């Protein structure tokens, strides 16, 4: 069976790698902090000492890192060891510009698929992510089946673009719900009444996310995803200011921006 390299074992990458190992896929893993990779050795993973070692001999390379700078750093280290016919499956939330940059750096025979995901750590652990794929997914359809349901979006970069659209709509919705709850408090509307009506109204999905008990999508990563949307979007620019105004919330889930959370 072909070897897969999995690079990036953070909040999302670790449960995703566990899913692949549970499916008996041969996996070599690398993470900047080696201690996060070590538990996977008991499941059969080989732990590499560098990205270049991880990708050497791999048919598929999966990256799940935090931002465009981290992806660029991984590419710098991994590309010298990348087999010329490898498939690079980029699953991070980095935006289409970073995907295009990576595509331009791959050797001529290598293929790139951008496949960012929607869903938090619970869905990653259960293999129920929504995967937004750009490019020809046939070489990795079997692998992706262990992680979730795939929406084929079009050419390389289209998955990353759609991810920004959807994730920013969600973040903006949660921010609106947070402000609505603050308004309710100001006007003396009981918190429980406001929550109930928000959950049953046109912003029900955003309200559900704002009160999600187990999601783990840090405010800092949400702010990064809003920043990736770029300039000229005044509502999202206001959301970004709100997300970065409270450094104490940076590592808490997005629902922490809700009053009383």
TrEMBL record:
SUPFAM superfamilies referenced in this protein's UniProt entry, alphabetically: 6-phosphogluconate dehydrogenase C-terminal domain-like, NAD(P)-binding Rossmann-fold domains
Keyword Oxidoreductase on entry: yes
Record PROSITE patterns: 3_HYDROXYISOBUT_DH
EC annotation from Swiss-Prot or TrEMBL: 1.1.1.31
GO molecular function annotations of the record: 3-hydroxyisobutyrate dehydrogenase activity; NADP binding
Entry-linked Gene3D superfamilies: N-(1-d-carboxylethyl)-l-norvaline Dehydrogenase, domain 2, NAD(P)-binding Rossmann-like Domain
Domain of life: Bacteria
Sequence similarity: Belongs to the HIBADH-related family.
Protein name (record): 3-hydroxyisobutyrate dehydrogenase
